[in-house]
Amino acid sequence: MAAVQPRRQERMMMNGIEIWQPDTGLKYSTETTFTEGSVRAMNGIGYFDPLFTVEQLGYVATNVPQPEVTKILQIIDNAKKFNLHYFSMHYGKWKDAVFFVGKGEYDVASWKVGEERVKSLSFNMTGIYPL
């Protein structure tokens, strides 16, 4: 009987390119959009008509070398759509889906030649297609 091979840990990728991995995972959330007529009445009862729900992922990494920051920024800047390989809590598995980033930030740690890096890089990714 052949020995069972351990599964290789999958890694996040953007457009098929392995990126600097987040520190401890991703902040995972979902956002649901409702019809304009969805309201909460004066008695506190909600009358909501959901349209769709999308996944949102919050990426945070620290002490990231400049070449890795540049690689990520060139993929996400200007709200460009990109393919993300990630672990979806909704589906309970690694999958690929299309996302975009509307806002991100980074704190520079060093501009010293040969040591360029950021203290932290963070941004929120929002799924293009509904769950």
Largest sheet: 7 strands, antiparallel
- What is the global morphology? globular
Rounded average pLDDT: 91
How many beta-strand runs? 9
Low-confidence stretches: none
What is the succession of H and E elements? EEEEEEHEEE
> Could you estimate the helical fraction of the residues in percent?
under 10%
In DSSP terms (H or I, runs of 4 or more residues), the helix count works out at: 1
Number of domains: 1
Protein structure class: mainly beta
- Give the DSSP E fraction (strand runs of 2 or more residues): over 45%
Rg is 19 Å
How far is it from the N-terminal to the C-terminal residue, by CA?
41 Å
Biggest sheet strand line-up: 2-1-7-8-9-6-3
Describe the structure.
A 7-stranded antiparallel β-sheet has the order 2-1-7-8-9-6-3. 8% of the residues lie in helices and 52% in strands. It has 131 residues and is mainly beta. It has one domain.
